[in-house]
Each structure stands twice: as structure tokens, then as C-alpha cells.
Design goal:
The complex is a heterodimer of chains A (about 300) and B (about 260). Chain A is α/β, with parallel strands linked by helices and about 300 residues long. Helices cover about 35% and strands about 30% of the residues of chain A. Chain A contains eleven helices and 14 strands. In chain A, the strands form three sheets. Chain A has a six-stranded mixed β-sheet with strand order 6-7-8-3-9-10, with helices on both faces. In chain A, helix 3 crosses helix 4. The radius of gyration of chain A is 22 Å and the shape is globular. The relative contact order of chain A is 0.14. Chain B is mostly helical and about 260 residues long. Helix content of chain B is about 70%, strand content about 0%. Chain B is built from ten helices and two strands. Chain B has a two-stranded antiparallel sheet with strand order 1-2. The chains are: A alpha/beta (about 300), B mainly alpha (about 260). At the A-B interface, helix 2 and helix 3 of A face helix 1 and helix 4 of B.
Chain lengths: ~300, ~260
């Protein structure tokens, strides 16, 4: 096991950030942590890369206890934090070289590795640019390159693609899948369920410091929601009318959106025939439906 | 496991190097403004006001005040570096959180910051020393030890700066630290006139501040005056510097690893 957490707890003064968390991540897997903001995902990750100390429970990373061997653990990890912490006073290449030093990588190896990584992340022509001259997407790619400087066995990615355009997001997904193919273990958090569904072998849904459920995206969808979803956009009166008439179908309301769930698309036929003019979308159920079902559609 | 200086490995030098690299990149902004204050002091206190004062403790005023100007140059630079500079790296740029995600420990970041502040104090006061040499007021060979004393004084204030920086919630609190401690220390520790001018209560307070000892030792070296009081002064200067450095390293650990 690359990561093994059991009854993991973290309390900051009066706030419980993580409670009774149990999970395991095997080598070469991509494991996703999803949940609303404040669910405890980042705290969990910070405990894994040893900058937040668990209050109780046990956390083993690469076979070592996070409280006993932080230096040894961190030497074999790559971290992509949620907040940009590139060094704005150094160039793209110097950012990588500085980190190489922290890992004790000798100069010539560091230069070679820096060159390869900038190629890998499509930043080779930006090697000498100062960090403030880079776009948001380039900075994110540079942070990922920096996380790879020590050839890590486990990469921890806290919202790696938040705020990026689709091109960069696809590039990062491709790179992460490349890394996974090489046998590197990935642990990531994301708010994009499409991303979790695409990349993760297993997903842990967290809410209010606790695990709600976990499994492969496919299993989670199968066990929590019906395979077909009909999304309807309707005003209050129409919503009321539809839900009264089709009460026998499983449904949920969120603002002006109505979601109906069914095991076969044909179950929606009568509804569609009754309201032929309404704005609607028939689609297969996704991880997002599971997420919203388990953590609620309301904003907290 | 200990989180103090004893837990620090030589990897802290890599963090020091990171700061040095940035400093060299931005040297134009770093050297000249930092020198402005000591040069101004030499002119205003030494040559300006000094021309109205025949002598102080038996020497021309400029020769008396030189130790104070050197000491001020060292501690002010170290203080700025380890308050605003470190705060900026820690809280605005998140540099430290990035560094401790690598095999570098929080205590190592703490010691690196203290040593970096001390380095800046040493560089700044050494430049002032060269100016004083140019003015022809360094007559005694013992002056070669002055940079060592300056480095220790700068370490003392760098460590204190890190303790403050790692314990405040927002940058505005530095104003209290500067107005309430750094500026008074800069003036009452025998920098511009002897501590003996003060009422006894203030003299005790002044001697409790290690900076007074640093200034007195520097002045003794410059003027070739030695007395038995120098030994306890040296012990207090060194001991307080070690103690504050230990506290700074621990404080950085508690700030960064929660």
C-alpha cells in the first residue's frame, strides 16, 4: 500500500477538519478525493505530505509513519498545492533548480531533469522567463513539472486544474495518465466530477470531515443513482405541476432545475409527451449526480 | 523528536542559497537603499552634530559613534529582512509551505531565515566598516574582529525578528515591534551616547538588552580599551543569541507544521 489511513482524525482547536477517515491507496492507482469546500480534503492531503500532524489515528505513507519519518516520506513525494507558491523572483528554470537542491539532486542531473520536465510540460521555450510573465495555465504546468523533479513515487495534486482553460486541462490530464502508466501513484482532489470520472480508479467522497462513500466511479454511479437522468429547466409553477403529476418517478429539485432518474430511458416518455415544449436533456447518470445526491444540492 | 537547532541538517544552507540567489538578482534594490541610513548617520551624527561636540569619553565624537552606526546598520538590516522580508515569503508568496513539502524541515527554514538575516546585517555593516576605514578612524588591528561581532548582533535581531514574524496574525503588528522595541533599542543601547547618561532604572534596562553589550564590545575593539566587564558582556551577547536562535527555529516549526 502506498497510503494507508486508519481512524484518521485532525482537530484544529475547536474545529474538526477530518474525522474517522479510513482509506487505502495501492501502487500505480489514481485515487480521488472529492467533496464540497471545507470537507477536509486539503487537510487530509497535508497530513500525507507531513505538514499537518494527525491528532489521532494512524497514517502510513510508502510504508512509513508520517509522524516518525516526514523527511524520508517527503523525499519520495511530489506535491502540487492548491495555491500557487512558485518563486516569483526566480525564472522558470531556476524554480525547478532550486527545488532540485532541496531534494539534494546534484547540479548536472538537475539541469538535465529541468530540461526534460519543461519539454514534458510544453514549457521549453519559457525556461528563462520570470514567473510573473507566465499565464495561469503555464504556472500550473510549471508547478506540476516542479512536483516531478525528484522522480516521485506518489504525486499529490490539490485541485490541479481549477481555473484552467480546456486545452491546458486536457494537457494536464494526458500527462497525469502518462505518469500513471509509468506506475506512479496519484492522489488528487478536484471539484470537476468529469475529471474524477476520467482519471480516477477510485473516488472517496467526503463531506463535513467524514467519508461518505468510496468506490470506482462506475460503482458509485451504479449504487447511488439510476442510470438515466432527465434534466429539465422550469419555472416554479411548472416545476410544481410536473412534480405533482410525476411523483412516482425518482426526482430532485435544485433552483430552476429538475432531475428525474430512471432505469430505462423509456420511463420518461410519458413525461416528455406531456410537456413537449420544455427545455430538457436526457443523459446517462454521472459522478456529479452521485456527488450532489450524497452531499446535497444546496449551497452551505 | 526535537524541533530545535539540534534537529537541523546542513540542507538549511540550500534555503539560505535560495535567498542569496534572489538577493543577487535584485541587488540594485538591495544594496544602495540599505546603505542610505548608516551613511546618513555618519554625516548627520558624526560630521554634523559631531562638529559641535569636542569629544565623548575621551575620543572625537565620530570615533565614539562609529560603533553605534555599525551596530545599527547590522541590526536594522537583519530586522527588516526577518520581519517584512520573511513575512512576505511566508504569508504572501507561500514560499515556506512549498519548501517544507520537500525533505527540508520547518526548523531548517527557520534557521536559514535567521542566518540569511544575519548575512544581510553582516554585508551591510561591512560596507559601513569600509566607509569608516576610508574616513581613517580605524586605528587598531583588533577591528578585524568587528565583522564577527556584527554577524552575531545581526543574528540576535534576525532571530528576534523571526520569533515576532511567526507569532503575529497580520503584518501591521510589525509597527508595534518597530516603534516599541527596535527603534528604542537602536537609541538607548549606547549607540550615540554612553548608557551612563540615563537614570539608573533605564541603565539596567539598557544593559539587559544584548545590543548594549554588542555595541560596548565593538567600541572596545575600535578604541583598544579592554576591561573585565567585557567577559560577562560577551557571554550575554553570545548566550542570548543562541537562545533566541533556538526559539526562532522552534517558533518557525510551530507556525508551519500544524
Amino acid at each position: 500500500m502506498i497510503i494507508k489511513a486508519s481512524s484518521l482524525h485532525k482537530r484544529f482547536r475547536d474545529v474538526v477538519a477530518v474525522e474517522s477517515l479510513d482509506f487505502e491507496v495501492g501502487r500505480g492507482r489514481c485515487y480521488g478525493l472529492v467533496g464540497p469546500n471545507g470537507a477536509g480534503k486539503t487537510t487530509t492531503m497535508k497530513m500525507i505530505y507531513c505538514i499537518v500532524r494527525p491528532t489521532s489515528g494512524s497514517l502510513q505513507v510508502l510504508g512509513m509513519n508520517v509522524l516518525d519519518n516526514p523527511r524520508e516520506i517527503k523525499a519520495r513525494l511530489g506535491v502540487v498545492p492548491q495555491e500557487n507558491n512558485l518563486d516569483p523572483d526566480l525564472s522558470t528554470c531556476q524554480n525547478l533548480q532550486t527545488y532540485a537542491k532541496y531534494f539534494g539532486i546534484p547540479g548536472p542531473t538537475a539541469s538535465k531533469r529541468c530540461h526534460e520536465l519543461l519539454q514534458f510540460m510544453h514549457l521549453a521555450d519559457r525556461a528563462d522567463d520570470p514567473v510573473p510573465a507566465l499565464s495561469g495555465g503555464m504556472k500550473r504546468r510549471l508547478i506540476l513539472a516542479r512536483a516531478l523533479i525528484n522522480d516521485p513515487e506518489l504525486i499529490i495534486l490539490d485541485e490541479p486544474t481549477t481555473g484552467l482553460d480546456p486545452q491546458v486541462r486536457h494537457l494536464i490530464w494526458d500527462r497525469l495518465l502518462d505518469l500513471k502508466e509509468r506506475g506512479i501513484t496519484l492522489l488528487l482532489t478536484t471539484h470537476y466530477m468529469e475529471e474524477a470520472q476520467k482519471l480516477c480508479d477510485e473516488v472517496l467522497i467526503m463531506d463535513e470531515a467524514r467519508a461518505v462513500d468510496s468506490g470506482s466511479p462506475h460503482e458509485l454511479i451504479r449504487s447511488h443513482v439510476a442510470p438515466y437522468v432527465l434534466e429539465i429547466r422550469a419555472d416554479r409553477a411548472l416545476t410544481h405541476d410536473i412534480t405533482a403529476r410525476f411523483d412516482y418517478l425518482e426526482h430532485q429539485t435544485s433552483g430552476q432545475n429538475l432531475y428525474f432518474y430512471a432505469s430505462a430511458a423509456s420511463e420518461f416518455n410519458e413525461l416528455i409527451d406531456t410537456y413537449p415544449a420544455m427545455e430538457r436533456l436526457l443523459r446517462p447518470a454521472s459522478l456529479e449526480d452521485v456527488f450532489l445526491k450524497l452531499t446535497g444540492r444546496e449551497i452551505r | 523528536m526535537s524541533q530545535g537547532i539540534l534537529s537541523v541538517t546542513p540542507v538549511f544552507l540550500k534555503v539560505w542559497q535560495r535567498n542569496a540567489r534572489v538577493f543577487i538578482t535584485l541587488w540594485k534594490f538591495n544594496f544602495l537603499p540599505a546603505l542610505a541610513e548608516p551613511v546618513l548617520f555618519i554625516f548627520v551624527m558624526g560630521l554634523g552634530i559631531g562638529s559641535y561636540i569636542n569629544e565623548m569619553e575621551g575620543v572625537p565624537y565620530l570615533e565614539f559613534v562609529a560603533a553605534g552606526i555599525l551596530g545599527s546598520a547590522a541590526i536594522m538590516q537583519a530586522t527588516f529582512e526577518c520581519t517584512y522580508g520573511s513575512f512576505f515569503r511566508m504569508r504572501i508568496q507561500n514560499t515556506f509551505e512549498g519548501i517544507i513539502s520537500t525533505p527540508v524541515s520547518a526548523g531548517e527554514v527557520g534557521l536559514a531565515e535567521v542566518m540569511w538575516g544575519a548575512t544581510r546585517g553582516l554585508v551591510n555593516s561591512s560596507l559601513v566598516l569600509l566607509i569608516l576605514l576610508g574616513l581613517g578612524i580605524l586605528d587598531h588591528w583588533q577591528a578585524v574582529f568587528i565583522p564577527v561581532i556584527m554577524f552575531l548582533a545581526a543574528t540576535n535581531f534576525a532571530a528576534l525578528g523571526i520569533i515576532v514574524t511567526t507569532n503575529i496574525a497580520q503584518m501591521e503588528y510589525f509597527r508595534f515591534y518597530f516603534a516599541g522595541f527596535v527603534l528604542p533599542a537602536q537609541f538607548i543601547c549606547g549607540t550615540f551616547f554612553p548608557v551612563s547618561r540615563f537614570p539608573e532604572a533605564i541603565q539596567i534596562f539598557a544593559w539587559a538588552l544584548p545590543f548594549t553589550s554588542f555595541i560596548d564590545i565593538t567600541r572596545s575593539l575600535m578604541l583598544d580599551r579592554f576591561s573585565s566587564s567585557l567577559l560577562p558582556e560577551a557571554l550575554w551577547a553570545l548566550g542570548s543569541t543562541l537562545l533566541l536562535s533556538e526559539l526562532a527555529v522552534r517558533s518557525m516549526h510551530h507556525r508551519l507544521v500544524t
